[in-house]
Design goal:
about 230 residues, alpha/beta, Protein-Tyrosine Phosphatase, Chain A, 2 domains, 5-stranded mixed beta sheet, 5 strands, disordered N terminus
C-alpha cells in the first residue's frame, strides 16, 4: 500500500521539490501507523473467470457437508418404536415393512408426523394408506419403487429431500423393509458420496436384504462411483 501511494505522488508535478518531499514523507508515516499493506490480487482462474476453487477444496467441502449431515442425524432423538416388520431405527428414522392401520394409529399417538411409502401402485394398502394417514393428521409421502424397479437417482434424491425437510418423527416403509434399505444405500452412494461398500453397508443397516444385488448393479451403472 505504501508503494502504491508513493508512486503516483512522486510523479505528480505539484509535489516535486522540498514541499512535495515533506508531503510524501508525512503520508508514508501515516500509512505506516495505520498498518497499510500491499493488497494481493486474487488468484486468477483459467480463462480469466475469477478466483478458482480447486478440486481438493470441492471434495473437502463435500466431505465436510456429509460429516455435518451424519452428525445431525446422530443428534436426533430416537423415534418411538413401532413394531412394523423388519423394524430398524436408522439415522433418526424408523424404517421397515408395511404398517397395519392399527400401527399407523399407534404411530400418530406416538407423535409421528410423516409417513413415507415406497411401495408401487397396486400393492396392498397403497390405495387406502394415503387417506388413512391424512385422517390421522400426518403427512403422507409416496416414493414409488415397484418390485424390481425404482432404484433410481431421482428416488434417492426424493428420499434425501424428505429427510431434510419433512416434519419428524418420520417412518419410511415398503412391504418388508428391503426396498427402504436399498433406497438408503443409493442415497448414501449418489447423494452423500460414500463408496460402494460403505453405501451397501448402510443399506444393510437400514433393512436391505434380497435387493442388494440389484442395488449393486444400479451403482455399477452409475458414472459417479467415488471408488
Amino acid at each position: 500500500m505504501r508503494d502504491a501511494v508513493a508512486r503516483p505522488l512522486k510523479n505528480a508535478a505539484i509535489l516535486r521539490g522540498p514541499v512535495g518531499a515533506l508531503a510524501i514523507a508525512g503520508l508514508l508515516a501515516w500509512c505506516a501507523a495505520a498498518g497499510c499493506r500491499n493488497p494481493s490480487p486474487p488468484a486468477a482462474a483459467p480463462n480469466g473467470q475469477g478466483p478458482h476453487v480447486g478440486d481438493g477444496a470441492r471434495h473437502g467441502a463435500g466431505a465436510e457437508a456429509r460429516a455435518k449431515r451424519e452428525a445431525g442425524d446422530a443428534r436426533k432423538a430416537p423415534p418411538p418404536l413401532i413394531d412394523i416388520p423388519n423394524v430398524r431405527v436408522h439415522r433418526g428414522v424408523l424404517a421397515g415393512g408395511q404398517p397395519t392401520p392399527a400401527q399407523l394409529q399407534q404411530a400418530r399417538d406416538a407423535g409421528y408426523r410423516t409417513i413415507v411409502n415406497t411401495r408401487g401402485p397396486g400393492e396392498p394398502m397403497t390405495d387406502v394408506e394415503p387417506a388413512l394417514v391424512a385422517e390421522l393428521g400426518m403427512t403422507y409421502v409416496s416414493i414409488p419403487m415397484p418390485r424390481g424397479a425404482g432404484l433410481t437417482r431421482a428416488n434417492a434424491e426424493a428420499l434425501d429431500r424428505v429427510l431434510a425437510t419433512a416434519e419428524g418423527p418420520i417412518m419410511v416403509h415398503c412391504a418388508s423393509g428391503n426396498r427402504v434399505g436399498g433406497l438408503f444405500a443409493l442415497r448414501a452412494f449418489w447423494i452423500e458420496g460414500k463408496t460402494r461398500q460403505q453405501a451397501l453397508a448402510e443399506g444393510a443397516r437400514a433393512g436391505m436384504t434380497r435387493i442388494a444385488s440389484a442395488v449393486r448393479d444400479a451403482m455399477a451403472r452409475s458414472a459417479s462411483d467415488p471408488e
